[in-house]
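Thread: Modeling a multi-component assembly for a lab meeting

Hi all, long-time lurker, first post. My supervisor asked me to bring a structural picture of a complex we are working on to next week's group meeting, and I have zero experience with this. I have the sequence lines for every component (766 residues in total). Could someone generate the structure of the whole assembly? Inputs are pasted exactly as I received them:
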Amino acid sequence: MAKTKVLERKPLSFAEKTFLPQIVTGLKTTFGTMLQKGVTLQYPDERPTIPDNYRGVPTLVKDPNGREKCVSCQLCEFVCPPKAIRITPGAIDAEAEPERAHVEKAPQEFDINMLRCIYCGLCQEVCPEEAIFLQDIFSLSGYSREEMINNKQKLYELGGTLPDKHHKWDKKKSAELAGNAH
Amino acid sequence: MNIQSIVENITINIDGQDVEVPKGINIIEAVKMVGKGKEVPHYCYHPKLSVAGNCRMCMVEMGMPMRDRATGEAILDENGVQKIGWMPKPTIGCATNASPGMHIRTNSEMVKESRNGVTEFLLINHPLDCPICDQAGECRLQEFSAEHGRGYSRFIEKKNVKPKRTTLGPRVTLDDERCILCSRCIRFSKEVAGDDVLGFVDRGTYSTLTCFPGKDLSHNYSLNTVDICPVGALTSTDFRFKMRVWFLKRTDSICTESSVGANTEIWSREGKIYRITPRRNDAVNDTWMTDSGRALYKAIESDDRLVQYTIEGVHKSPEEVANAAVELLQLGDVALVGSAHSSLEEQFFYKTIAERCGAKVSLVSHYGEGDGLLLSEDRSPNLRGALVTGLIDQLPEAKLDALAHDINSGAVKTVLAVNEDLTQLGIDSETLAKVKVIYVGTHANKTSQVAHLVIPSLMVFEKDGSFINQSFRLQRFKTAVPGPRGVKSDITILEKIAAPLAQEKAAPALAIDELWLRMVKTLASLPESLSWRSLPDEGVVLDAKAFLDLSFVETKNLKYDPVAFKEAHTASAQAPAAAAQEEA
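Re: Modeling a multi-component assembly
Sure thing. I ran the full set together rather than chain by chain. Output:
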């Protein structure tokens, strides 16, 4: 048992007994704040500015040519701590998409379960193709559990296009077309 | 090449530590034997192939005790210890055989530097494909680059362009840019598969792996080249882009394709099998298996899979079906058509059931053409098991003419058929209509359609058990994936049928260990000390003396020679010794 110490309470002074000084101090704060600029936002009519490195809903992005960047290496699925990501890998049909045949691999299905996602950003960090990004969406809702699982189409809708300048696969393709020096 | 048969040991010194190794062993194997996870990195060396020595990754420093050239006397240092004459340059471990007194350094600065250099050269033209490469996760180049490489590239020139997505054969796809020219696949095709189809064309960095003109990699062992490829150059067309290997769970199993009983590994994730690869067993299949054996798992998801216990086509509970089976069997006049595809445990149960209801047992042979390697003439995995359990005492016939005769004469009223379509075996559907059929099997066929009772059975991937292969080697397989929903394991349901036949109470959930206690007590061929759980991974050779007079169909193949087998097992006094030697 911790020792308790009983403190003598000081008797209130006359001014304190009238409560007036306290009321005045309180009103000073009230009126002072009233005249200042507001610190709250009228959400959802007003939206906060999201910092660049904010970790919101993970999305899939396309390259500047509007092509799928993800090659379904499944590293994000592997690294995901709550196992929110589920990928079904597949081959790119060379006949259907000849200009992308050299990439060989793309996800058939790509599901992120937003009920499981903890917004840690490890998927973005691990992605070797820079295809998955946690963007600025912070509020999401749905009426069913199924609605909260973002499929590939939804992920690309949310993600949009990333104007990067790597052109990794384009370089690969031009090297392939150029052939060897000898 | 059989390292095991060499008994003479010599002492060599590896990284300052004296170790005993068999004479003639190479440095890679010697270092592996030292244990403690020590390994000489290598690409082109494979324990079951000839030594090519072309990857230069297994460089080690080697030294021999110094002797005076003129007198042959040992040269001693100031402490009176013989001096070691270290070679000025490193040597490759795969082609260096251990000799007495040899000193090896696997971790010196020179060795590290040479590995680093080799890795850098290999990576010069290797594409940065890891995200889309199926080998990632089990790639030796990836592993050794992380372990021995420099971590960044100094190469600013353009990488070589080579053919990608080449179809080498019906099951193998080649990506030449990833190839590190180790020539394992070439040596395998030539030396093991006996079909020399692969070779290099062009020179220097332009060297390219390809099939000889007019040929393709279509032999039944082509997928072994994918297994031994240290990088992702050769990929399985079937497994390509299906799943990353780090998600897959590995389960030890046995191939059911033929009586060879190749040891396999089942790679599965969340109850779905993605591929089957061979598991090394020097006494059975080395490190190989057939392509056809790798495709067997596809039958799991076939549409005609039996998944419901039925009586006259009506869905019932397993208990109801088992009780109905007991009632039918108790009426007598039963014939049992067993299967050499059943596990040893199931065959033990069928033997018990046959004894308890006085059934006449017949088995059907499944013979085909052997290829002299890992596909034997007997296409059933456990014919020897049926002999060991006493289910049969003669080799099976191809047809069931005797049973057809018995049915027609009215001597048989009930047939318990295990995994065999009787209509294909000399019993036409008219004859079959005269009897009540209890069908136990994995897939639907014409017999299961007319069967009175249908008991669905699990496939080899879905249950625990054991098989006995062509050389009477008892081998264990484990559950890799769960069976179809609602289907109980075969031994559980067979216990529910066998126990009431002898007025016993069925064990509620029969564990395989408990069953094995019964089996070793009953079966003379199984040593008392044996248990399913304690079976070693490489299997146990059983005493085959009682069955040597039978003329088995297997001819000589990779690890089995009928003549030598008979000789080894005939001399009864030496039989255990021979078995032990084969074991070693």
